[in-house]
Amino acid sequence: MVFVLKNEYLAKVYADVEKRNPNEPEFMQAVGEVLECLEPVVAKRPDLVKTGIIERMVEPERMITFRVTWVDDKGNVRINRGYRVQFNSAIGPYKGGLRFHPSVNASIMKFLGFEQCFKNSLTTLPMGGGKGGSDFDPKGKSEAEIMRFCQSFMTELQRHIGQFTDVPAGDIGVGGREIGYMYGQYMRIRNEFTGVLTGKGLAYGGSLIRTQATGYGVCYFAENMMAAKGESFMGKTVVVSGSGNVAIYAAEKAQTMGAKVVAMSDSDGYIYDKDGIQVSVVQQIKEVERGRIKEYADRVKGAVYTQGCRGIWSIPCDVALPCATQNELNAEEAELLLKNGCKVVSEGSNMSCTAEAITVFLKAKILFGPSKASNGGGVATSGLEMSQNSLRLSWSAEEVDEKLKGIMKSIYENSYAASKEFGDEGNLVMGANIAGFLKIAEAMKAQGIAY
Ligand code: NDP
Ligand code: 2IT
After folding, report:
1. Scanning 107, 273, 317, 345, which has its CA 20 to 30 A from the CA of 71?
2. For 225-271, how does the pLDDT look when each residue is reduced to its tens digit (9 = 90+)?
3. Do 219 and 364 reside in the same domain of the chain?
4. DSSP 201
């Protein structure tokens, strides 16, 4: 265990979770980080200990796994496993993305669902936490195979979700295309037009800015951290890992705010463009052609491609925005970033940094935005999509963007304030965990325990 749990009660909670969830390293990592941050809360709030809030919070309210059967283009019957973890509904309907990636398993679903509760709480909107997905690998599948898989997945998922129960959205491997196919199947089966998914197309209930929201939010959060030190993105060199939905719009926004993004990646390797990445070229390759980042170097003069995605952290930068996947940045890579002058890290992917890497950044006292806080713009805008669906109205891009900016500012301020109140000013890992926790804890306490 890399976490230091001096408090006997918290150490016991951790040990019990570990016993009940063997071989789930990602889930234990997410739980360990939160428990470590809750030490000062436990000291101040014996009422929350007495009512078993923390033990209840680390156990999902419900976890559904199901078989997804589909037929590939050659007529073969294929089987995948589907998941929906409904983690906590104390402050609103379960809300969180769906991930389609071959690495998906119970541990990854539970870490994502657990963290989603705190993130959603921080957004200031009334949303509980959940996550889902499948070990289906979208790579190399035809359009028709993707459609059939999404339909089959929703045939089962539809019985567990609803606009007031559980509202899924996208994540790795699930974007506008997949949401469209799943929404179509939901309507076919249920015969109702309702805001049951977010990230929908604009023609059928989606919100402007939802596509951009996570990446934009990551930059707004970084800008809030920097503004407190009299700094901004202007003139900064930035490295963004990944080249999916979050990475693309983080890169675009960082450039708009005056920075130069010099590197991006996918799971095969990374590109370096000393003149500044042309985001429109990345969009053409990844969003339109669904190709590989390597192709950027074939199209843009002076750009260099290097095989192996982790090498991206060896590129000197002022600001690092990890936007690919969990544990994509370890302690050695964190040291390397610091050595090369990096002063700001804002996590776009969930749990981007290993626990050891976070320790390196916190010790160095650089500006570190933990994903629960820094990437909350995506789900926050999903919340705004839900509001628009309920109102039967659509807000303009400017209206949504202004609300998103305001929410990112609140997330920063509330996290900062909690870090100060609980004795480690500026430690936003602690601040975000505590601020996110307290709102859910108060709700759970008020709602009582079913004897
Ligand atoms: P996409 O599927 O659009 O893009 C994922 C990117 O990360 C791709 O470049 C992909 O490369 C890379 N990647 C995925 N898995 C791995 C891996 N195991 N190792 C190395 N690289 C990998 O997903 P998103 O952009 O939506 O999501 C990225 C991260 O942001 C995830 O952690 C997600 O949970 C988080 N997030 C997403 C939100 C959203 O609204 N979409 C909201 C908040 C957080 P390749 O193509 O080679 O697989
Ligand atoms: O991790 C996340 O916050 C997301 N994938 C977005 C969830 C959502 O419901 O918009």
Report:
1. 107
2. 999 999 999 999 999 999 999 999 999 999 999 999 999 999 999 99
3. yes
4. -
| Cβ of 60 less than 6 Å from ligand 1 | no
CB 131 within 8 A of CB 351: no
- The structure's pTM equals 0.98
330 and 302 both lie in a single domain: yes
Residue nearest to atom 5 of ligand 1 (CA): 244
Question: Which of 114, 245, 285 to mutate to test ligand 1, by most ligand atoms within 8 A of the CB atom?
Answer: 245
Ligand 2 contacts CB of residue 326 (under 6 A): no
C-beta separation of 262 from 254 below 8 A: no
Residues forming the active site: 131
Phi-psi region of 426 (alpha: psi -120 to 50; beta: other; left: phi over 0): left
Residue 97 lies in a domain: yes
Q: Which of 88, 186, 242, 174 is nearest to 382 (CA)?
A: 174
Please report whether residue 419 resides in a domain. no
Give the residue among 7, 408, 386, 402 at the shortest CA–CA distance from 221: 408
What's the half-sphere exposure (Cβ side, CA atoms, 13 Å) at 451?
0
CB of 202 closer than 8 Å to CB of 164: no
Residues 71-89 pLDDT 10s: 999 999 999 999 999 999 9
- Counting from 1 in the atom list of ligand 1, the atom nearest the Cα of 376 is 43
